């Protein structure tokens, strides 16, 4: 039986007059309460997640200021067509429903961010390409074999296609001028590469070789604990981090794909990669052993907000010396060159996935969106240079926070930024070249 959400009681009493946000998650709702329409002149964000809704009322456009709606975890089979009649609606999140149909009419004109992760969708309407503000499209865990041609969607920056049924990447994908963050793992044409990578030697430990300690944190794909690794009788126990994966689909893709990428990424000083796997008696991966970082490491930025959509949110007033800024960028360029060299695409090169000690070390983390690169040369080169755009945006963001913009190195970084962001994807430099430009000799 669902617990009564206190917001529902307050709504029915009329206590929420003037509210801009309304959370009605987990209320057992089978229809939208009529009292919601009393907030029509103020309501901008509505969360209806984890209820029993299968439809939304035709009157929904009366909420004429509505910008954000979440319907995740409800038994919808059709994305409600009435959403398209909401003139201000820009963000739609219907994750983990049972949706198999997305009508043309369900896509509002102001659509900017669409989350349909973990549904049963086999096709999307061509009219998706007619939404000029579309910036973030999250479709992992569906049944898609093709996509509408979004090559003319000028702001599309992030695309999640993992765990679908693509036999190859859509042709327009590697020529898209604004696309920077892409997840492809778990599709037939890259899943074969994951299976092939399993032959790479990987240290496998049994559960008795790792003693689990306290919980350190939780991410989208798993729980991270402090642990002690004790598999070498000749050496003392060593503190490590242990990541146990959740079974569920994440917004980026499948835990199995993340595990494979995280193991394959090892071998670079600026990458937080797995050093071993922990297997059960049947040989299945139970967890990954990762290096334990000190408390001085923290994310360089926060993840995107509802307002920023695809761009990270930095601490207000953050200022970086050009020396530190250069260190971060040189470390990331070298790390990305390593990944591309061994056939991996990170998919999520963001400041919020860079762990920074505030001084001299920057580490690339989180392989939830990573995938193995296909062997076909043109496709591989195009996918690599999509990530170069992500790096260019990182350069842009850090330059905005440089403490001395007159430093001659800032002009050199500005020129590099322009190279990385140029709209003709094939003309962007690769990470080997970028890393060479940012090497120690360049920094002096």
TrEMBL record:
Coiled coil: none
Keywords: ATP-binding, Leucine-rich repeat, Nucleotide-binding, Repeat
Positions bound to ATP: 243
Keyword Nucleotide-binding: yes
A Pfam family of this chain: LRR_8
Transmembrane residue ranges: none
Organism: Sphaerotilus uruguayifluvii
Keyword match Glycosyltransferase: no
Protein's name according to its UniProt entry: Protein kinase domain-containing protein
PROSITE patterns referenced in this protein's UniProt entry, alphabetically: LRR, PROTEIN_KINASE_ATP, PROTEIN_KINASE_DOM
Residue intervals of the Protein kinase domain: 210-444
């Amino acid at each position: 039986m669902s617990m009564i959400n206190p917001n529902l009681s307050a709504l029915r009493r009329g206590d929420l007059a003037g509210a801009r946000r309304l959370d009605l998650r987990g209320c057992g709702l089978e229809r939208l309460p009529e009292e919601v329409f009393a907030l029509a002149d103020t309501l901008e964000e509505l969360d209806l997640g984890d209820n029993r809704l299968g439809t939304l009322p035709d009157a929904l456009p009366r909420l004429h200021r509505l910008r954000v709606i979440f319907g995740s975890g409800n038994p919808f089979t059709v994305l409600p067509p009435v959403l398209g009649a909401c003139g201000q609606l820009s963000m739609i999140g219907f994750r983990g429903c049972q949706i198999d149909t997305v009508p043309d009419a369900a896509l509002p004109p102001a659509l900017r961010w669409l989350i349909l992760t973990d549904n049963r969708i086999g096709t999307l309407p061509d009219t998706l390409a007619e939404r000029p503000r579309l910036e973030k499209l999250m479709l992992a865990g569906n049944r898609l074999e093709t996509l509408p041609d979004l090559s003319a969607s000028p702001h599309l920056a992030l695309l999640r296609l993992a765990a679908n049924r693509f036999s190859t990447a859509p042709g327009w994908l590697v020529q898209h001028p604004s696309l920077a963050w892409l997840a492809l793992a778990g599709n037939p044409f890259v899943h074969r590469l994951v299976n092939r990578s399993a032959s790479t030697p990987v240290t496998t430990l049994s559960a008795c070789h790792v003693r689990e300690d306290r919980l350190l944190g939780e991410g989208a794909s798993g729980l991270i604990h402090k642990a002690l690794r004790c598999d070498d009788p000749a050496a003392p126990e060593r503190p490590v981090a242990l990541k146990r994966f959740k079974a569920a689909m994440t917004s980026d893709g499948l835990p199995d794909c993340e595990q494979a990428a995280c193991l394959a990424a090892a071998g670079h000083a600026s990458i937080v990669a797995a050093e071993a796997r922990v297997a059960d008696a049947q040989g299945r991966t139970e967890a990954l052993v990762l290096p334990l970082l000190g408390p001085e490491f923290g994310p360089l930025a926060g993840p995107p907000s509802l307002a920023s959509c695809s761009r990270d949110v930095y601490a207000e007033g953050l200022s970086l010396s050009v020396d530190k800024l250069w260190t971060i960028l040189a470390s990331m360029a070298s790390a990305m060159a390593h990944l591309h060299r061994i056939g991996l695409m990170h998919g999520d090169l963001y400041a919020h996935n860079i762990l920074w000690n505030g001084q001299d070390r920057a580490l690339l983390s989180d392989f939830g969106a990573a995938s193995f690169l296909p062997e076909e040369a043109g496709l591989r080169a195009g996918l690599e240079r999509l990530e170069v755009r992500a790096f260019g945006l990182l350069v842009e963001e850090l330059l905005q926070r440089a403490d001395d913009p007159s430093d001659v190195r800032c002009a050199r970084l500005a020129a590099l930024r322009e190279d990385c962001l140029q709209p003709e994807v094939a003309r962007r430099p690769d990470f080997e070249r970028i890393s060479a430009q940012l090497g120690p000799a360049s920094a002096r």
